[in-house]
Amino acid sequence: MNTPEPPKMGRARSLGARLNYKTLEILNEQDGGSMPVGELKKLIAEKLQFDEWESYEYNAGNPRWRVNWHFYSVDLCKSGFMVKNNGEWCITDEGRKALQTFKDDPTHLFYETHRRYLEWEKKNKNKAQTTPAEEEEIIDNVPNAVILDNIKQQANDDIRKYLDDRNAYEFQDLVAALFRAMGYYTPFIAPRGKDGGIDIIAYSDPLGATEPRLKVQVKHYNIQSPVSVDVVHRILGVAKKDVPIIVSSGRFTEDARITARQNNVRLIDGTEFIDLWIKYYNKLSENDKMLMPIEPVFFIKRSE
């Protein structure tokens, strides 16, 4: 594809171009195209080299490249190349096409995302276009949103580490506790040893007389080891007329997600599990809360 020569970039945009391209490239390599932002940040830091200016740390302890990354990631989202969902960043089909179109060309990819962002901005906000110099000034002021994002990310990383440090049976107890907080009864929680493919059976009434029942398979996998499609096939063989659910502390392969959608199997990955634990935390019993105790932190919401 023939593309016009882009205008000369300032330092901030040049860094943003590298970061945005590497972000899409890493996400594109993931099975399912998504990754928790904390894991993604670590890979960005490993795969890119930053000079002294790019590594400069502001008073808040944030290196310039990380602030830049959050700032220009907005372009990726508004251009339709990426979505952010509760701490998980995911490449879209449009993002995959853009990587092919601008292969090994971060600069042209950056200006395409920025062009699309400006179109979105004009349509939705009617703001004046910022210059490269103005963008550098904004980045150097370390927007409150970036600091808050970092705090949220650190909290999410802490919860994920807590889950990773549990053993399989402790995670199974957490899953059972969540279902109880959601109003279900859990008379069967698999003991140690063979479970026949089902770890938890949940009822909507105390006697289990009301159908359907929930049959839950629990997989305590880390984020680097996604749950395969074989697990989906196995639960279909034992769920029968009941509702099959697979809960993972990690994530699922794309094949697993496709097969689950086709067969009405409900998948809950680690990101959604954390969201549900937070949402239903106040409905947990005091004993269940102690399985993974959390507390909220509130901030004044300021306009950007």
Task: Please explain how this structure is put together.
- With 304 residues, the protein is of the alpha/beta class.
- The protein folds into 2 domains: 11-163; 166-289, Trna Endonuclease, Chain: A, domain 1, CATH 3.40.1350.
- The protein is built from 13 helices and 8 strands.
- The chain has a 5-stranded mixed β-sheet with strand order 4-5-6-7-8, sandwiched between helices.
- The longest helix has 22 residues, at 144-165.
- The chain is elongated and about 70 Å long.
- The mean pLDDT is 86.
Count of helical regions: 13
Per DSSP E runs of 2 or more residues, the count of β-strands stands at 8
**How large, in whole angstroms, is the Cα Rg?**
22 Å
| Tally of individual domains | 2
Nutshell version of this structure?
This protein is an alpha/beta fold and 304 residues long. The chain contains 13 helices and eight strands.
